[in-house]
Amino acid sequence: MLEATVKKILQARVYEAARETPMSPAPFLSRRFNNQILIKREDLQPVHSFKIRGAYNRMAQLTDEQKAKGVIAASAGNHAQGLAMAAKLMGVKAVIVMPRITPEIKVQAVRARGARVVLKGDAFAEAAAHAQELIQEHGYTYIPPFDDIDVIAGQGTVGMEILRQQATPLDAIFVPVGGGGLIAGIAAYVKYLRPEVKVIGVESEDSACLKAALECGERVILDQVGVFAEGVAVAQIGEAPFALMRDLIDEVITVNTDEMCAAVKDIFEETRAVSETSGALSLAGLKKYIQTSGASGETLVCINSGANTNFDRLQHIAERTELGEQREAILAVTIPERPGSFKKFCRTIGKRMVTEFSYRYADPESAHIFVGVQVKPGGEDRQAVIDKLQEAGYTVEDLTDNELAKLHIRHLGGGRPQERFAEEVYRFEFPERPGALMNFLTHLPQDWNISLFHYRNHGAAYGRVLVGMQVPADDLSHVQGYFDDIGYRYWKETDNPAYRLFMA
C-alpha cells in the first residue's frame, strides 16, 4: 500500500493548477528556539490553501462521462475553494453545498471561482446529507475533502517538495491534522524515502480525532468538536488516511486556542502572511515540541496550510496572542476596599506592566480586581508574580487558562446584581446565523428569567455566548436536558471561580 501510494504521489497531476510553494526561513523563531525553523508556504497557492492539490488530482481521474455530469462537495472551507478552481480550469460544472453559517467571505470566494453554491443546514452534517441527495438526483460525482487515495496523493506532493527543497539534514516535519489527507500523503512519501525524518501531526485539542483514534487503535467519533480552528474541525479521522498513516507518524501534539493565536503572530512576523488559525496549527505544535523535548540544533519544518481568514477575526486572535506566548498572566486578586489599596497593589507588582485592570465597588470590606500582568514566557515568571502577591497577603486566583475569564469576564468584570438570588450560568457556542438566539429562547421554559447575557462576535462560524438564568427549583434537575434538545455546545459555569469572583 505504501509503495502504491508513493507511485500515485509521483504521478499526481497538481501543477496544472497548483504551484510549487517555497519554504521560508524563520530567522527570529530560529534564534529564539535555537533550531533551524522553516515554514512551507501553502498560503501562497492560488486559493491560499494546499487543498487545490488534492481536489485537482482527484478531478484529473474523472471519466469524460463524469465530467459531463459535474462534481459536487460539501464544504465550508478551503476544499470548497480548491474544488471550485479545479472545476473551472477543467471546464466542469461544480456544486458546493455549504452550511448556512458559512462566513459570507468564503461563500463569495467559491462563487467567484465559478461554482454554484447551495446553502443548506446549520452544520456540516446537514450540508453533507443534502449533497448526497443532489448526487442521487443529478448524478454528480462527489469529490471528498480528504478520505480518498487520489486526494491523499495530491496532498502528498507537499512532502515531495519539502524533501526536494531541503536536501540537507531534516529532523522533523509538523503537519496540521483535520481529516488526515495531508499528513497521510506527506507521511507516505517521507517515510518511504527518508524514514529517519519524523512526521508529527498537530491537532487542536478540542478536535483531536487522530489522537483519539491512535489511543483506541481504531477510528472514533468525537462527541464534540471545537470550531475555533474551523479548517481542522473534524469529528472523525478519514478511513483511507488512517489506514495509511497510523503506523507511519511518530507523534501527535495537541495545542490550544492561545497557542494557535501566538503562532499566527509568529508567522506574520516572519513572512508578513496572515495565516488562518488552522494554518498556524503546525507551527504551534512545533514550538510545543521544542519546549517539551528540549530539541536544539535541529532542522524543523512546519506548514502554513492556509490563509483564508476573516478580517474581523483578527481582533480576537490578537487579543489571545499574548496569552498564547505566555507573556501575560490573568489574575483575580482580592484587595482591601480602602483608599491607597490599589497603589499598594501596584507597588507590590513592581515595574511589571499592567496590561488590563477591571474593578467595580461591590463590598465595603474587600474588592475583587481582574488584572493582566506582563510576564516572561515559560510559566515560571507567572508563578513568581503569584507567589509575590501571596507573600504580601493577597488572595490570588490564576485565571490565565480559564476560558470563561478570557472570553467574557474580562469584558464584564465588576457587573453585579443589587440583590442576591439563585442563578445558573452556562457558556454556549451559537451558530452565527439569524434566528439562532430565537431558537435558544424558544426552547427555554417561559418561567425561566435570563439574568445575564454576553455575546462577542469573533468573525467565526460560531459565536460565544454567556447566559445566566434564574431557574425554578423544580427545573434544576432538567436544565441540561433542555439544552441537549437545543443542540448547541455548552458548558456549565456556575461554579467557575471567574464568575464567582466578579459576577455572582
Instruction: Give the tally of structural domains.
Output: 4
- Using the coordinates above, name the CATH class of the largest domain: Alpha Beta
- State Rg: 25 Å
Low-confidence stretches: none
CATH architecture of the largest domain: 3-Layer(aba) Sandwich
Through-space gap between termini = 59 Å
Strand order of the largest sheet: 1-2-10-7-8-9
The total count of strands amounts to 18
Helical fraction equals: 40-55%
Give the class from helix and strand content and strand pairing: alpha/beta
> CATH topology of the largest domain, anyone?
Rossmann fold
Shape: globular
- Average pLDDT confidence is 88
Percent strand equals 15-25%
Largest beta-sheet details: 6 strands, mixed
Number of helices: 20
Keywords: Amino-acid biosynthesis, Branched-chain amino acid biosynthesis, Isoleucine biosynthesis, Lyase, Pyridoxal phosphate, Repeat
Pathway: Amino-acid biosynthesis; L-isoleucine biosynthesis; 2-oxobutanoate from L-threonine: step 1/1
Cofactor: pyridoxal 5'-phosphate
Family: Belongs to the serine/threonine dehydratase family.
Task: Provide a brief overview of the structure.
Keywords: Amino-acid biosynthesis, Branched-chain amino acid biosynthesis, Isoleucine biosynthesis, Lyase, Pyridoxal phosphate, Repeat. The chain folds into four domains: 2-49 and 148-322, Rossmann fold (3-Layer(aba) Sandwich), CATH 3.40.50; 51-142, 3-Layer(aba) Sandwich (Rossmann fold), CATH 3.40.50; 326-401, ACT domain (Alpha-Beta Plaits, 2-Layer Sandwich), CATH 3.30.70.260; 424-502, Alpha-Beta Plaits.
